[in-house]
Amino acid sequence: xxxxxxxxxxxxxxxxxxxxxxxxxxxxxxxxxxxxxxxxxxxxxxxxxxxxxxxxxxxxxxxxxxxxxxxxxxxxxxxxxxxxxxxxxxxxxxxxxxxxxxxxxxxxxxxxxxxxxxxxxxxxxxxxxxxxxxxxxxxxxxxxxxxxxxxxxxxxxxxxxxxxxxxxxxxxxxxxxxxxxxxxxxxxxxxx
Length: 192
What we know:
Structural class: mainly beta
Shape: elongated
Region (Disordered): 167-192
Order of helices and strands: EEEEEHEEHEEHEE
Protein name: Fibronectin type-III domain-containing protein
Organism: Macrostomum lignano
CATH architecture of the largest domain: Sandwich
Oligomer: single chain
Number of helices: 3
C-alpha cells in the first residue's frame, strides 16, 4: 500500500430477527503485503465423476473446469490419479497411478465442462476387476496445486449377480445396463 495510513469506519448491521445498526469503531491500515496472485491455488474440483462402458472398456471422466488462481482464468493443467486404496489417493496423491491422458487436456476458462475419455486397459491396466478410486487436482501456471477433488469409485467389470438384482442385460436395455456412473463426495462414495 502506498501513501499515508488510512482510517476506515466499521458498521455492523443485523438483518434478522431485528434491524439494528451499531458502530464497531474504526481501524487503521498501515501496510498491505503485495499479493503474488500466482501463489493462489486453483479452486478445488467438487463435481468429479466417472462413467464406465463395460462393453467397450472406456472410462469417461467429467468435471467443471477451475481457474488458474481460484476461479479466475483457466487452470494450466489437470492431474488425475488412480488407486485401489482410497486412503493412499487422499493422503499421498503424488504416489498414486497417473492417468497420463490428462496431460493432453486443453486449458479452458473456469466454469466450463471438462471431459476425458480413456481406454481403461491402456490407462489403467492395474485395475481390471477391482474397485478403484480416481481424483483430480488442478495445477496453475506457477505449479501450485488445488486441493484434492471429490473421489470417484469405479469398477470396470459388471457384477456376476445382475439377474439376481433384476438388471436386464439383453434386448433394448443392453447399452444402458453396461454403463455405470459414479460420483462421490470426499466423505463417501455413491454409485448410481
